[in-house]
Every structure is written in structure tokens, then in C-alpha cells.
Amino acid sequence: MTKRRVLPLVWMAFSGGGVTSAMFLPVLVFLFAFAFPLGWIDPPSGEHLRAILGNPLTFLVLLGIFTIMLVHAAHRFRYTLYDGLQLKWRWQIALLCYGGAVVGALAAFLILATAMG
Amino acid sequence: MSDLTWRRPISTWWWLRKRTYFVFVMRELSSLFVGWFVVFLLLLVRAVGRGDAAYHDFLDWADSPVVIAVNVVGFAFILLHTVTWFGVTPQAMALRVRGKPVPAPVVIAGQYVGLAVVTAFIWWLVTR
User: Fold this and answer.
1) Is ipTM > 0.85 here?
2) Concatenated DSSP letters for B11-64?
3) Which position among A45, A87, B88, B99 has the lowest Cβ density within 10 Å, counted as fewest Cβ atoms?
4) What domains are defined for chain A?
């Protein structure tokens, strides 16, 4: 594929990932990084969470949002390194960022598929 | 042939010079924590899938001081991302309804309604 065909897709995933991370992460992080581990709210049972993860719709939604969030993070972090830190290793940074997102998306697929049972 | 496109080198620390530059770079850095929380949530999903013992080990790990510290910093970056992302959306996307442009405050308010709906739904789904 040519650059002209790939770039709009990356930008679309970047925007989509920006919206989904803005809407989904605050509540997910609040609950699973603070409220449950610190005991502010009784954590749900493993059985209840496995029932949610066992639903194919959960699998599709989580795989979708995790993937575009990773593309968003990769794309934005790439430009933070170029412009913010003025780093010059352009293709190495791009490879590291997008490669990381691809590896993360594959890992997400395997982990979610395994948890679905 | 000599290269005539010389550009004045920019300092690595240019973004410390002005408050607006600093906020810009902090906003962009939120991407690092978006990536971190995807990894964090995937570790949670993996632990839940492996059974109750692994799930409780995950909650204990998430309760350790280092992880809490990283997550507090990360959460602040996520909130910065949410507020700034909603704020620039009207400039990035010209939304029209029946040919008329939707005013910026309406686009921003609409996104906060979306945030509230998503938050309420996930809260209900997980804690019911």
C-alpha cells in the first residue's frame, strides 16, 4: 500500500483512539486501578468478570477500543519524540511506536480470546 | 553541493520556556499513559481469565505503592487528555446538522454526555 492510502487510516485510528480513550479510560482506571485494589468499593467476583469477558460482544468492543487506543498512543508518542524531544531517528522511532502497537493489538487478541474461554 | 536549507537548531528543552508549550507537551505525553493503561487492563483480563487466585494477585499487585504511584500520575494525564481532547474536537471536526454548523459548545457538551453515559454503563456492568 502507498503512503497516501495508509496515512488517512492512521489518522482515523488516531482520532478514534483519542475519543475512546477520553471516554472509556477515566472510569476503567478509576475502578480497576484505585477503587477495587484500594478497597473503596468491594471488587466484583472473578466469576462475574469472567461472565462479562465471556460475551462475544465484550470481546469485540474491548479488542476494538484497545487496538485503536494503541494506534492513538503510538502515533501521538511518535510526534512527541520528533517534535518534543527533537529526536532525529525518524524511521527507527516510527518502527518502535507502530511496531509496539501491532504487537500490543496481537497480544490483546490472544489475551481476550483466551479469557473468553 | 552544499545544503542551503540550514535551519536554526531547536533546543531539546524548548517546551520549558512557556506555560502553553509545557501544557502542549504534557498533553502529547498523555499518549504514553494511554498505552500503559491498555497494558494494565490487559494484565487484568489475563489474570481474571486464569482464575480467582490470579485475579486476587493482580489486585494485590495493583495495591503496591509503586503501581499506585504510576497510576496516580497516569490518571492525571488521562484526565488532561479527556479535557483537552473534548476541547479541540470542534476545531478538528466541522459537524453539520441539516447543513447548519453545530456550535462548538454543543459539540463539547455532547462529548461530556457521552462520557457520562459510558461511565454509568461500565460502572453498572462491573459492579452490579
Assistant:
1) yes
2) PTTGGGSSHHHHHHHHHHHHHHHHHHHHHHHHHHHHHHHH-HHHHHHHHHHHTS
3) B99
4) 7-116 (1.20.1300.10)
